[in-house]
Amino acid sequence: MKNLANSGQLREIINWGAYGFPERGIDDSTLWIGTLGANTPCHIDTYGCNLVAQIMGRKRWVLFPKSQSSLLSSTRMPYEESSIYSQAGFPRPSLLSHPKLCRTTPYVVTLEPGDVLFVPKHWWHSVENLNFSISINTWLELPSDEEERVREAIVMYQVNSLCQGVHSLDLIHSVFNPNMTDIAVMGPTQALKILSERVFGCNHSKEYNNKEGYGIAKKANLKTESNITMAHPLVGDKVEPMNQAGSIPGMEIVPCLSFSHYMQMVYGDKGEMVHKNISCLSASQNKEAESESDSVNCEQLKLLINVFTDPQVVDVIKTVLDEKLSSLRD
């Protein structure tokens, strides 16, 4: 992943305006470069939605709608602000350890050079390079992001509180993504300050947005449970503007699959799939048994974090918080 602010050549050829966002340029984009097999675990981004353009190579995207979240075994570990992960082991999931997966209907698409994928808000996605790959994306802000920032601050505060007094680096590294370990050592006063800033900052932004509108999100009329769409091209001389109806020439809807179909794509024949799943599950169980005495504290901490950061718990806290803020304004 690379910031593109100083890439003059790319600045000239990237044009998100073809998709209705002329104000977004290279400064709002991220470059992704990876070798064969490089992958991102299945997760959702809590903020905004996503436009991804494939520049070189091929990349497989597997996506699930928000409505199937209960089937994907969500977790906040490794903890990272704005990312909620699935425990199902994508891109090579196990039906034996996560049987609810068989009820999902993944959307699977392989991006070729020149393809662009729109990922709606809160859609789960796992990504894998099928060869050396270069892609570029931009995250599109939505009005609901202000509310999500409060939820993320609540999650951060819960995780920070539970990790107070934890000094084991191994334990911290098992709970946090490497770029978030500062939360583990942050003092409670600083964590509370961040939470307060998010809460009262969101309240101010909500009043402002009601008066001034919602910027690009309102203009684009983006929906949370929208279909996955793929269109091309985005770069070079082939950029095609949106037509008067607001659609994009060459746009197509990505169809969903049965999960068994997806597993056949990943593992090949069914016998090989079952064998690999059993092997992975057995190896995992053996590893857990061998290290049980050393990982009790780690497992307890993970359990508590998953409980206190569960979306239902966060929603309850957010609801009570909104009620208290409303009573203060009244």
Q: Can you describe this structure?
A:
Keywords: Cytoplasm. Residues 1-157 form the JmjC domain. InterPro entries: Cupin_8, JmjC_dom, RmlC-like_jellyroll. Its main location: cytoplasm. It is a single chain. By secondary structure, the chain is of the alpha+beta class. The protein folds into 2 domains: 1-143 and 214-268, Jelly Rolls (Sandwich); 144-213 and 291-330, no CATH class. Helix content is 40%, strand content 20%. The chain has 10 helices and 13 strands. It has a 7-stranded antiparallel beta sheet with strand order 1-2-11-4-9-12-13, with no helix packed on it. It has a 6-stranded antiparallel beta sheet with strand order 6-7-3-10-5-8. Strand 6 (74-80) and strand 7 form a beta hairpin. Helix 2 runs antiparallel to helix 9 and helix 7 (259-267) packs across helix 8. The protein is globular and about 50 Å long. Residues 204-226, 231-246, 271-275 and 288-296 have low confidence and may be disordered.
For the termini, the CA-CA separation is 47 Å
Note the run of SSEs as H and E.
EHEEEEEEEEEEHHHHHEEHHHH
How many domains would you count in the coordinates?
A: 2
The structural class is: alpha+beta
**Taking all residues together, what is the mean pLDDT?**
77
Count of alpha/pi helices? 10
- The coarse silhouette is globular
The overall strand count is 13
Unreliable spans are 204-226, 231-246, 271-275, 288-296
